[in-house]
Design brief:
The protein has about 190 residues and is α/β, with parallel strands linked by helices. The protein has one domain: 3-Layer(aba) Sandwich (Rossmann fold), CATH 3.40.50. Helices cover about 30% and strands about 30% of the residues. A six-stranded mixed β-sheet has the order 5-4-3-6-7-8, with helices on both faces. Helix 3 packs across helix 4. The longest helix has 14 residues.
């Protein structure tokens, strides 16, 4: 099934190859732009069916996606699971629930992301959920880029991708003078 997910990423031009500046400041030879896949509802639905199957033994009352990347996939997975889907967002640089969203004490909550690399946004969302008294089931993601690192909770992903990352000072792509691009902006550096 992972091969099918990679195929869907490639079909939608969501799996990019080149020289990319990541938000961490590191460089990479590949980048996953899940929004490119998620613009196709039928492909989003197919990926969420894979996640739904992986989550079949979990009790989930509500899904929460961190804005921006988690919103669409949370909605689609919520639909597949038949549960509400809400999102967290930053306000004054702090992850929070707004827009009248709430998590009830004791609810089983699944955090939903497009890509998990370090888990930073997901972990901030987990704190919000726990502050409301919710019980975190785990994190579901379209793509797992953690490289097998423990992020402190269960991770359910449609596909795990091994993608090379480099410090700027030791980047073989820089040494080859391959153009550096910040994903999403098409801006060259």
């Amino acid at each position: 099934m992972e091969n099918r997910i990679v195929e869907l990423l490639k079909e939608s031009d969501a799996l990019l190859t080149g020289h990319f500046l990541l938000s961490s400041g590191k460089h990479s030879d590949k980048y996953v732009q899940c929004a490119k896949l998620l613009q196709y509802p039928e492909k989003a639905e197919e990926v969420c069916q894979v996640l739904k199957e992986k989550l079949k033994d979990e009790k989930i009352d509500i899904v929460v996606g961190p804005a921006m990347g988690g919103i669409i996939i949370a909605y689609e997975l919520g639909r597949a699971l038949g549960v509400p889907a809400i999102f967290t967002e930053r306000e004054n640089n702090e992850m929070t629930l707004r827009r009248g969203f709430e998590i009830k004490e004791g609810q089983n909550v699944l955090v939903v992301e497009d890509v998990v690399t370090t888990g930073k946004s997901s972990l901030e969302t987990i704190k919000v959920i726990e502050d409301y008294g919710g019980k975190v089931v785990g994190i579901a993601s379209l793509v797992d880029r953690t490289g097998g690192k423990d992020i402190g909770t269960k991770l359910f992903s449609a596909v795990a991708l091994e993608i090379n990352t480099y410090d700027k000072e030791n980047c073989p792509l820089c040494e080859k003078n391959i153009e550096l691009v910040k994903p999403g902006s098409r801006k060259k550096f």
